[in-house]
Structure formats: C-alpha cells, structure tokens
Design brief:
Elements: E1 9-13, H1 17-30, E2 34-37, H2 48-54, E3 59-63, H3 69-76, E4 80-84, E5 96-98, H4 113-121, H5 127-137, H6 145-158, H7 162-177, H8 181-193, H9 204-222, E6 226-228, E7 231-236, H10 243-254, E8 258-262, E9 269-275, H11 281-289, E10 293-297, E11 300-306, H12 310-321
Parallel strand pairs: 1-2, 1-3, 3-4, 4-5, 7-8
Antiparallel strand pairs: 6-7, 8-9, 9-11, 10-11
Helix pairs in contact: 1-4, 1-5, 1-8, 4-5, 5-7, 7-8, 7-9, 9-10
Length: 322
C-alpha cells in the first residue's frame, strides 16, 4: 500500500509513547516520503492553521488519534488519508481506516495503536510495538494474559525486565507532559537512530523531565478530592499535561470511577479526563453532540471544554456515571 503513495506526506501522531512508537514504526517504512507532526499538545483536534498546512500534502497518515470527522473530511478533500488507531471512531467514507475497535472488535485483542501498526506492517514482535501497549496500560496489562505472555517472552529473549520497559514509557511520555511539542516530534527519529532500546534509558533530557514531573504528579494525586455518589472528582491547576497520568493513578489506586479537571493548561479552555469501568462511548458521543472536542476509548474519555461550560459538563458526567 505505501508504495502507491505519491508526492509529499505528513504523519500526524499522538504525543504519548504509543503515538511516538507507532510513528517510529511507520517512519521506518516512509522516512523518505513523509514528515511527522503532533497536534497542539492537549488538543484532540487540529487547529485551522494546522488544517491549512496539512491540506497542502498529497497524503496524510493519522495514527493513535481519533481526530474529529470534520477534520478528517477536510484533509481528505485534497489528500489521500490513512488512519491507524484503536480509539472509538466510526469508519469515515473515502478514508483507509485500520481500526478494529472502531469496527466492533474486542479491545483486549488490540491494546495499542503500535500493535495495530506493527501487525499491519507484518513485523515480528518488537520493543516499539510493546512499548505502545505498556504506555497505554502500564502494569494493568499484566491482567491481559495473551499480551502479558508476549511481553514476558520478549523480555526473556531480549534480556529486559518489565520495569525497564515501563521506565522507557515514562521517559518517552515526559516530553509532552512538560509541554515540549518539538521534542515529541523529534522522538520517533531518535528511536530510529538508536541502535538499541536501552538508549532510551540513557537520554538525559528525558530523565531530567521525569524528575520535574514526579513531584508535580505526586502533589496532585495525593491532594484531597471530592466524592459524589461514589465517583471521585479531583480539581487540579497545572501547566503540565499530566491529567491523564493523574486520572490513571487515582482510578487504578481507588478502583472507582474518576473524573479529573485541569484548569491550568489552556487559557480559555479546561481539560477533563474520565476513567471508568463503564462503557464511556455514549458519554463521548454526548460530549461531541454538545460541541466539545471529545474522544477516548471504552474506559477513557478526554475532553477540552470552554471554561464557562465546564461545570455543566462535569454534572453531565457525574449523572452518566451514577
């Protein structure tokens, strides 16, 4: 398929470890034809400036991001569009869409975009396919017997420990969490250059990021929150893009539905993140119908909401979860 792509191309990828590793796997096949970009950090959509820029390319590949349908249709007017993803998103007409979960397949069988990309490329199991999985699930992947066996077998063969792979994920994630968009876009190319994955553990810039982030994350995880009808609600104010990490830690430690609101990342918008054992797809659709930039997976919702409408959407979330 990639041999058929003509002209210039852009690869738009999520800013986390899964997105970075997925981009690295694709760039290995397309490095001479394509540049890679990540959206404005925290935006699950493309700005007008980004849409204008990316519409000038002959083909666009989107990986590990369920961009709004209107964004995709805008890009598809002038370019061939290919999507590789594992988030909830219905297939879009006229677009190549490699997303088994969007077609109703079991999410347990497709735990990351990196795994979907790697499988599509016909690659053997490798560290980048697995880092995307660990990035999205951390230690909870140990409950997925099929994939944890794959990870364990790989670690034995390549002499890694699971904790080393987890630390690689934290290091790869550190660039977006400190707000360094340029470093996110540089990361897939660094992974292409590294002769061994252990080089990730030696990256001084990423290690320094982690020292800064660990204190900030711990401060917000341990701070008091509210509980409404058995739902944990945490309000934070931070310039760092750590809302998903804070939500994950609170939800996994408590075992309860968790909602986190960050009022400090955008000037005019708020970040909202939800983790639940319930199917959040109806809530995601509700958020979209209300005009919010909203996306996620079965158990995760991420939204960017105008500040004046934040509290009303929080009420809608609590009502849905309860």
């Amino acid at each position: 398929m990639f041999e058929e792509l003509q002209g210039s191309g852009v690869l738009i990828h999520h800013w986390d470890a899964d997105g970075i590793c997925s981009a690295r796997l694709l760039l290995e096949k397309l490095s001479k034809k394509i540049v890679n970009k990540t959206p404005v950090l925290g935006n699950y959509f493309l700005t007008e400036e980004e849409l204008t820029e990316y519409s000038s390319y002959n083909f666009v590949i989107v990986v590990d991001m369920a961009l709004p349908e209107d964004n995709i249709n805008r890009l598809a007017k002038n370019a061939k569009v290919l999507i590789f993803d594992h988030h909830l998103q219905k297939p879009i007409q006229g677009v190549f869409h490699q997303n088994p979960i969007g077609k109703g397949e079991d999410p347990l069988l497709y735990p990351s975009a990196s795994w979907i990309v790697n499988d599509f490329l016909g690659n053997p199991v490798n560290v980048f396919a697995l880092l995307g999985i660990i990035g999205d699930h951390e230690k909870r992947i140990q409950t997925n017997k099929e994939f944890y066996t794959k990870i364990t077998d790989f670690c034995i063969k390549e002499r890694f420990t699971f904790d080393e792979l987890l630390m690689m994920v934290y290091l790869l994630d550190s660039s977006y969490k400190v707000g360094d968009r340029k470093a996110v876009e540089e990361a897939p190319h660094l992974l292409l250059e590294y002769t061994g994955a252990r080089r990730i553990l030696q990256n001084i810039r990423w290690k320094n990021n982690l020292l800064l982030l660990e204190k900030e994350i711990a401060k917000h995880v341990t701070a008091p929150g509210e509980e409404k009808q058995g739902i944990l609600l945490k309000r934070i104010h931070t310039k760092f893009n750590i809302i998903s990490t804070v939500t994950r830690k609170i939800a996994w430690d408590s075992g309860k539905d968790t909602v986190v609101l960050n009022t400090g990342f955008f000037k005019d918008m708020d970040q909202i993140y939800v983790r639940s054992n319930k199917n959040l797809q109806p809530l995601i659709q509700q958020g979209k119908m209300l005009g919010y930039r909203c996306g996620g997976k079965t158990e995760v919702l991420g939204a960017v909401v105008p500040k004046e409408r934040t509290e009303s959407f929080i009420q809608e979330i609590v009502r849905f979860l309860s």
